[in-house]
Design brief:
Strand content: 35-45%
Distance between the termini: 46 Å
Order of helices and strands: HEEEEEHHEEEEHEE
Helix content: 10-25%
Strand order of the largest sheet: 1-4-5-6-7-8
Radius of gyration: 18 Å
Length: 191
Amino acid sequence: MATNSFQRTKAWLVEQGFETWKTETFNMYSGHREDMFGFVDILGIHPDHGIVGVQACGQDWAPHVEKLTVEKKDIVTRWLLARGSVWLVGWRKLKAVTKDGKKGKAERWAPRLGQVCLSAADGLIVVESTERGYICAVCAAELGGSWPKGHGATCHSGMCPECWKVKSLASVGDYDWPQGSRRPRHSGGRD
């Protein structure tokens, strides 16, 4: 049996420490699947991330962004104002990286994570977490990293791949990682 994006997403959330519940149901009268509130496929709870409404998709990312930010904007906004989080988890095949850091021939399914956020200017936006190699200051400090004295760097807003929260991010390589610190594997060099 083929694994679909829903099954991959549920398994991935469980790996990340979530308790999950399937909220998508099949309406035998209409012949369609229906999501909770029109956008939640999976309800997840996590001690660090709270209550998360997850929309699962395959490689068709743009229509799901449209659904969450335009079509279901009112109910998604109410969910966010009630302090719930909304995630979009898509799946795509990427070439696996070998031990020497080169792209291999084998492909594997990899998640693409986006978090729906309230923006004063634009209403709802989806902040995508595809930028491995960046980290927020809180996570860097928790892992043992320190900001070098007198060092300046360009930061940007995005979803930290360590805590999955939208924060100001700097390159992992901008921090000093002393012996014994737990430098993230998704890192680059200092710019």
